[in-house]
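Input set for joint prediction.
Command: fold jointly, output tokens.
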Amino acid sequence: MSIQSERKIFGHLQVVLPFLVTGCAGRQSALDPAGQEAAEVYHLSVVMVIGGGIIWLTVIGLLTHACRRRRSAWSEEGAGRLIAWGGVAFPVIVLFALLVYTIWLMPSIRPWLGRAVAEPDRIQVIGEQFWWRVRYPAEEGVAGFETANEIRLPVGERVVFSLRADDVIHSFWIPSLGGKMDMIPGRTNVLSLLPTKTGVFRAPCAEFCGVSHAYMAFSVVVMERDAFDDWRRKQASGNRPEGSKGERLFTHHGCVGCHSVRGTTPIAGLGPDLTHFADRSTVGAGTLANTRKNIERFIRDPSAIKPGAKMPAFDMVPPGDIAAISGYLAGLR
Ligand code: CUA
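tokens >
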């Protein structure tokens, strides 16, 4: 390889490497763990990468040595020894060591085994096409409630999820905290996680579930216990905003047939609960930023943003009414 082409490659690497490295951090990265299970998985990956790297370098070293060595015949005994050590003993030892390590790791990745939390005390998450229904259990005098597309958790406390699906198979995965676990219609899977850092994380659906699979995500907000308790109390007590034109139109145009604003509208369970919708960061389960303009876009034609969404288009509603409804939703703090 000429010096020029080596310089060229090095130049490209200098441009690409910072992007590769910064790609490891962030709110949706298994390489930047913020939970105990994610940390265990991360350590396993590091061990595998380093081990794989050492083996790769050894093989390349042997290959280079073999290419440079002067050709001469091997004795039958020497060749047999090479095969026995390099082809049998070495892989057996390495694979056995990895097996022991992963078996030792398993209990800390699935710590709920043998430590059952009763079903009523778990957070229930139900996969829908293409959003997430979330039900919090009652706790310490605070009633249970339903919300959607956002999960909030107290930092440093183990939580247990009951995972189900209503229509097709989805998969629950919060890369920064751990996981993943399939959500299968007709059965309940259990997953436990221990968040260790506060922050906001993104969780994508991890099983192809239809045309908008890539537009099905939720946010995870890990908070201090006090802030979490305040949020929980606020959620449980519903929302009664000042009567507005938008609120009247929300009922008039039939939005209440599918969406609940607990405390204001009758309970309707078909679409996502919107009680404190303005506190969420996204519209359409992780698809758009939660702004008034985006809420209007979504109401006018959900399928244009999220193909296959079950919510029908409301493009027959006058733009002024859509703007008023979007203003009402943006005020649901
Ligand atoms: Cu739900 Cu993919």
